[in-house]
Amino acid sequence: MEALISKWHRELELFSAIRPLLILEGNVLDQYRYPVAGSIGEDELVPLPRYLHGYFTDQGYDQVVFYSNLVGFMNPYQPDMLARFAACCGQKTENGAIPAEFKGNGASTAPNLVRRMMLQQDRATVIIMELASHYITTPERMDQQDVNAFNLLSQAALSASIVRTPWGRRQNLLILLVHKLNDLPAWFYLNNPVCRTITLEAPDREERRRLISGPAFPTFFDSAVYRTDMPWYEAHPQDLEKLRERFVALTEGMTFTELDALRRLSRQMGSPMRELNSVVDLYKYGISENPWENLSMESLRHARQDLEKRVKGQDSALERTLDVVRRAVTGMNGLSSSSTSKPKGVLFFAGPTGTGKTETAKALAEKLFGDESACIRFDMSEYGQSHSDQKLMGAPPGYVGYESGGQLTNAVKKNPFSILLFDEIEKAHPTILDKFLQILEDGRLTDGQGNTVYFSECIIIFTSNLGMYVKDALGQRHPNVTMDMSYDEVEKRIRDAIGDYFKLELGRPEILNRIGENIVVFDYIRQASGEAILKAQISKIISRLWEQKKIQLEIPEDSYAQLRETALSDLSNGGRGIGNQVEALLINPLSRWLFEHEILSDAHVVLENFITAEKPARVECRLEEKAGDAW
Amino acid sequence: MVSNPNLNGLYEIVGDLWETLQEDARKIQESPEPPKVPESAGQKPDKACFDALWQTEDETIDWTEYLTLPLPAWDGFDPETRQFLHSQAHRVLRGDLQGYASVLQKLRPLDDLRAYAHKISVEAPDPDRLKVSFTCGDEDAHLAGTDRDALLCGIALRCARDLFSILPVTEVHVVSGSPDNPDLTAVFHRNLTRQTLFRLTDPVSFVTQKAEGVLRQMP
Fold it and tell me: Which residues contact A138 (CB under 8 A, 6 or more apart)?
């Protein structure tokens, strides 16, 4: 297998020869795959300090020592190097270390010793300062001794010597390992000609592929599992390739330490090889049973009818919505993209108010995950300020609310298999849209506490009333669509308006691109669907009255016609408007009548007349003798 | 010398990070001695020894780790054994019965049971299964200071666990007593033993409830 050398390793090779001060920032607590055989085996995963020790020892450096402000100078891998280092700088070792404080005025402080050793020309030396992010409280609040300490390190790098060794010339090196570059004072590294910053990223696709295809592959499995399952995969190499490909896609963004933990988890569980990727689910979400895999085709075949029971008159919108679900279930949603860690589906519901957008999301959650509460709703009008992203993703360390995390990240951590409903997305602050961009593209987000949350098992639904109104040149709002337009016309106008909003008004066409063709426009509630909604609401009231109060409510056809005429006279407010009418014309007057006649249960009431002309509306009813329990 | 006295105590805090410091820590806090298992049938083991027998198991060999170099650094084997394991890994993971035999001969996983049982033998009818048989006399129960049922089940359990630890088999078939009239037969599946807390498990309950094909002759 050809050696795979990471970008940061190449940079280390290149710049360790020409720059005496290297700052390694980023993923410094992770393990790394050693790319070539040397004092460390090829492809072995080792912590960064061991990696660096192995690398510089192989390069022919005489002494590689580590510094920590807790212990001092040390070398846990090759203690004789520390003894040589101690002799070279005239210090004594104590309990396997050379104690030295980071700041102070003495000649034995760490920066002074570093300077002395960088200047000497007898032994090629590398000094690696670990956890350098924590030597000072913050770069903004440094006292004079802190400044002096960094000044000495800077001078040490500026005057670093080149040492002649049997393997050629080697430059004395000072390496600082930091989480973030700005943990160090800016003047220390900015405009510093001898300094080079190297960023350590999480393993990329190739690195992950190497891990799962190289010598480490068998170690992902229990010995008995490997022995029994591997012969089948050897006979079916294309299936093995698929297994590996899927693993690479699912582990995007994971560190080597996480991948190693995943490897140990898989082995400990003794799962069959074909279930390797379920272990990834288990690691990411804490559960191994993926509800997506448990969805039956039969239940999806009837999904349309089930959704229609709750959402009336939206044939086209329901069909488009179910298309996205079908894509997710058949695994076709990632086919047009290189990443399979994207959310299962993204939908953008637009259209007039009260047409069933939120209801569709809830009905879908019930259908897919068996529970309406799997639809987690965020009212984006609450996230209109510039700092609102902290409410969603969690405040950074040091800020109020840091401990509680973010509302969105907490919700997804708790329930990774869910429908996320972002209501009225146009009311969110534009900075939040940037976060959505990351969720839609990478399928993951890191909260303020540094925990990565995965959205790859979610369906994300945005709802919006965009496109309902347009502004004229004077800034006045005018209806863009009206009820007398056909659905095709409504859809076209709303889609155009949404496009204009993202492209022209917001200047963020990339967000629109991520949504793609998944804009679903809900139609106005028209007469026929209005009547279906009205009927559904009235039968719900009748059955509840019977179930809870044993009151049998009868509405004869001609009374119902009176109610229908008034309730459906204005459908511009959609289903919600019909509900309001039912409340005003039926529920309130009826409860008034029952109260006045002291009927609290066990009765048969016939509603004879709706007096809608009066304010408030009232009803005329009569009591019938109760027929019996069977109604 | 440490100029700041606060640093003195920090060696202990960070001791586990550094091997050299760890050695000092080890001198101070030695781990408690495990109960000593008698090395031959002539010596008399006690109850604590017997409990330790079935609550523990031999060092697990992660064969997939031994397929390629470098070898895992954290196992409990000496360098020669590690090299041997590396040389056998391919054979064992192919289910080669000769490979199984070499490993059993080299590691002798059931030797520590000699104080409790006699005529211990292991057969490998196929790469998935091992069959182990042993005999226990009445005097063995007396020696162990426990009832015969617990003794048989404890030994059977330990046999299965040891064999699962060292070979990638999925099933261990244990027979105690003569093949025609056994005191105990039980089939253990690998997955059963994987996530059981044996420290808190009663061997008789485990064998009767979890193992398959259990046949016991009550004393």
Answer: none
Residues of B in contact with A94 (CB under 8 A): 1-2
Measured CA to CA, the distance from residue A515 to residue A63 in angstroms comes to: 56
- Quick check: A230 contacting B, CB < 8 Å? yes
Query: pLDDT value at position B79?
Result: 85
For residue B74, the model assigns a pLDDT of 63
Q: Which residues of B touch A211 (CB under 8 A)?
A: none
Taking CB atoms and an 8 Å limit, are B190 and A224 in contact across chains? yes
**Which of B108, B123, B144 delimits the end of a domain?**
B108
- Cα separation, A446 vs A273, in Å, equals 30
- Write out pLDDT tens, residues B205-215: 888 888 887 77
Q: If you measure CA to CA, which chain B residue comes closest to A77? A: B19
Do B126 and B202 lie in one domain? The reply is yes
| Closest listed residue to residue A502, CA positions, set A610, A557, A582, A428 | A428
How far away is chain A from the Cα of B64, in angstroms, using its nearest Cα? 5
Residue pair A98/A86 in contact by the 8 Å Cβ criterion: yes
- Out of B7, B11, B170, the one facing A224 most closely (by C-beta) is B170
Contact A483, A571 (CB under 8 A): yes
Residue A213 CA, chain-centre distance (Å), reads 27
**Which two three-digit tokens encode residue A576?**
């919600």
- pLDDT category of residue A571 using cuts at 50, 70 and 90: confident
Interval B9-61: pLDDT, tens: 545 555 555 454 445 444 434 444 444 444 454 555 566 666 677 777 778 88
Range of the domain at B44: 32-58+109-216
d(CA A202, CA A32): 9
* Token representation of residue B101: 């035999």
Complex ipTM, two decimals?
A: 0.74
Give the CA dihedral A104, A106, A109, A114, nearest 10 degrees. 120
- Asked whether residue B3 is domain-assigned, the answer is no
What is the tens place of the pLDDT at every residue in A381-439? 888 888 888 888 887 777 777 777 788 888 888 888 889 999 888 888 888 888 888 88
What span, in angstroms and rounded, lies between the C-alpha atoms of A321 and A325?
Answer: 7
Sheet strands (E) in A148-267 = 162-165, 168-171, 173-178, 195-200
Which range of residues forms the domain containing residue A187?
A: 7-200
From the list A574, A485, A594, the residue with the least C-alpha distance to A525 is A574
Q: How many structural domains are present in chain A?
A: 4
Residue A159: give its domain's CATH number.
3.40.50
- DSSP code, position A414: H
Phi and psi torsions of A610, nearest 5°: -105, 115
Tell whether B68 and B127 lie within a shared domain: no
From chain A, pick out residues whose CB is under 8 angstroms from the CB of B11. 71, 95, 97
Q: How far apart are CA B63 and CA A228, in angstroms?
A: 13
Structural tokens at position B150: 């617990």
Chain A residue nearest residue B61, CA to CA: A223
Residues B89 and B121 in one domain: no
Are the C-beta atoms of residues A606 and A557 closer than 8 Å to each other? no
Residues of chain B in contact with residue A227, where contact means CB-CB under 8 angstroms, are 63, 92-95, 127, 168
A329 and A259 in a common domain: no
Q: Are B184 and A240 in contact (CB under 8 A)?
A: no
In the numeric block, the tokens 């086919």 are attached to A335
A232: nearest CA partner in chain B: B94
Q: Is residue A402 part of a domain?
A: yes
Alpha-carbon distance of B134 to B162, in angstroms, equals 14
Q: A304: Cβ–Cβ under 8 A, 6 or more apart, which residues?
A: A318, A319, A322
HSE value, Cβ hemisphere, 13 Å, CA-based, for A528: 4
| Cβ contacts of B128 on chain A, cutoff 8 Å | 228
- For residue A87, give the amino acid letter: A
With tokens 């007396």, the residue in question is B142
| Cβ atoms < 10 Å from Cβ of A417 | 20
